[in-house]
Amino acid sequence: MGDVIDGCFGRSCAQIVHLPPERDRMTAMEYWKPHKLASPHEGQIFLKINDKVRSTAEIHGVPVGTEGKVLLANGFNWQRYRVLFENGAEVGDLDHRNIEPIGRTAKRLAKLAAKANR
Asked: In CATH, what number does 52-116 get?
């Protein structure tokens, strides 16, 4: 198979497997399409991975107004998000009560709302 090396890098420890050159290739990370039933309900926000957001409430060590990036968009009935904030905190289970879209994300959502109101 390959050589196994134990190593610690920063705070995480892992086993590194060195594969032979013919098997040492990076593969693309697969992103799954959202399920067709996973759409936001009235009052929820529709965010995607890498969208920019700002906290609107004090959350687990994240002050109000801290900006961040959506790492994971999840849920069928309750749209919730995992966000990496600028202060290094990564918080999950956030929704429209805790975060708001900013920048291009806010513009995209405003266009979607205007299109829906036609």
From this structure: 2.30.30
**Which tens digits make up the pLDDT trace of 12-33?**
454 445 555 555 555 555 556 6
Q: How many CA atoms lie within 13 A of 94 on its CB side?
A: 29
Tokens of 116: 């829906």
**25 dihedral zone (left: phi>0; alpha: psi -120 to 50; beta):** beta
Helix (H) or strand (E) holding 115: helix 104-116
The residues near 44 (Cβ < 8 Å, ≥ 6 apart) are 78, 79, 95, 96
Dihedral Cα 82, 85, 90, 95, nearest 10 deg: -30
Q: Give how far Cα 28 sits from Cα of 20, 25, 31, Å.
A: 19, 10, 9
Tens digits of residue pLDDT in 71-84: 998 887 888 999 99
CA 43 to CA 96: how far, in whole Å? 8
